[in-house]
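ok so i was messing around last nite and threw this chain in just to see what happens. nothing serious, just curious
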Amino acid sequence: MGTDDAFAELGLATDASESEVKAAWRRLVSQWHPDRNGSAGAVAKMQRINQAFEEIRRAGFRAAPETSAADADAHDAAPASATDSGAGFDEPDSGPTAFSEEAGTGRQRRPIHRKVKLTLEEAAAGCIKVLRGKITETCQVCAGAGHQMLGGNCVRCGGSGAVPKRSFFGWPTGLAECEACLGGGIARQPCAACKSTGKTAARSYQAKVRIPHGVRHGDLLHVDGRRLRPQRLPADLEIRVELLDHAFFELDDDGTLRCEVPVDGFAWIAGRQVEVPTLTGLQHLPLSRGRLSYCLKGQGFPVERRGARGDQWVTVVPVFPERLSTDQQILLDQLCATTSGAGASVDDRLQGWQRGLRAWERGLRG
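result:
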């Protein structure tokens, strides 16, 4: 219920003063209290009246115009302030979440806010997450006020809404708001159903939520609470996605997945196969001497939510031993001999370099 609707519910203009609001509230309570009004809609009307007053009170009363002395003596009554419920929570089981229903509509004012942490593999393929937590709802007996109106004048203040204040020595020092009726002047009693809290007892919930494939860090997902299983919720879910850092992959905005893989330097020279990680598991990659970057088509992250997957780029880093064993040294010597012996096939680049180096040396000597 908005502030303008609240003024309309009390039959007031939006510029009504605090004293006018309280007077209208007292008049309507006296008219619609179920103890005085036996109509079928009396309870619902009382709930709307109390909610309207609380909405205006939270928004702040308008400054009252200059009043006469007679107006200054008028009763300044007000009902107890209801808790503005509906705050969500981010982590499971971190505390109860309250919901406030708009009078007569059955709609919740705020959804449940949750965070879901996903691995890149879960976000790329989609998954089902089980969310657990606790929720509280607005007490339907007292409409969240924490008390029920009895009707008639408050016994403690006689309906004036104020009681005499006295100093430490017992001398009268003015008037104070009556604590029994909170200045309303109308008799009330604590709500036994919610123990004056205005909310029901916290209850646990568990819901399975399907996360679509291709969600990104920071995405907001809306889930209809009525369609959740195994139990429905009295409000919808607003789920914020948080992607966890990955040990191997880096994700680009265009869905490209990048991975750096150290490989055996001798296997790289020999053009052997190595296993590289992808989002769906290990995959064999044939190495090519002189090539360090490889593209795996369609093995990246979805370009857009529920869309096709991008590519994955693998960068290999050849790694050689810092110290060669005796056997490795012998094998390398034999390999070097095969490239420098008679009849050996030598790369044109190496031959050209050697010819240029000898010509340069002869020039120095000549």
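not much to say yet. The domain at 3-81+147-190 is CATH 1.10.287.110 (Helix Hairpins).
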